[in-house]
Amino acid sequence: MTNLLTITVNEIRSVPDTPLLYVLRNELNLNGPRMGCGLEQCGACTVPLGARAIKSCKTPVIEATRGRITTLEGLGTSEELHPIQQAFLDEQAAQCGYCTSGMIMLVAQLLGKNHHPTDAQIRSALDENLCRCGSHLRILRAAHRAAELMWGEVK
After folding, report:
1. Distance CA 92, CA 136 (A)
2. Quick one: which of 12, 21, 136, 153 has the most CB atoms within 10 Å?
3. SS3 53
4. Is residue 15 included in any domain, yes or no?
5. Are residues 54 and 90 in the same domain?
6. Is 5 a member of any domain?
7. Which residue, 31, 51, 33, is CA-closest to 43?
8. pLDDT, tens digit, for every residue of 117-141?
């Protein structure tokens, strides 16, 4: 992966209690987080805020001032996929794809803390995100493949 540079370009002006998801999608055109249920139940809108995952559909934008937010667009590009994105593609871990962004963001957060998680640890990390298509086993395989791509074989 090429060297990455982080810059801050603009500040966003928004009513403090506006849902973060609305700001991400409508003001910043970051369409990775999805509007699913709008009730913090499905996880399609999940993004990391600092060290914790949040459901952006109900989180007020003011919370974004308390840490760094990464969306799917911040992981990789269509020309150079992040290893987690590549693993999801390799394992065909999406059917409709609606939950995929939230799942990828949770796997990224998990693999940042635990380089070789067990099946149980992956399941626990993804427990609050729903996949109605039944891709759970492929998502589990994709998480393991991503760990291998990022950190090498389990010893």
Report:
1. 11
2. 21
3. strand
4. no
5. no
6. no
7. 33
8. 999 999 999 999 999 998 999 999 9
d(CA 147, CA 62): 33
* Per-residue pLDDT tens digits for 53-88: 999 999 999 999 889 999 999 999 889 999 999 999
Residues 6 or more apart whose CB falls under 8 angstroms from that of 8 comprise none
pTM: 0.90
Domain ranges, residue 29 = 20-71
- Do 136 and 105 lie in a common domain? yes
Are 85 and 109 found together in one domain? yes
Give the contacts of 61 (CB within 8 A, at least 6 positions apart): 12, 14, 15, 16, 17, 18, 19, 20, 22, 23
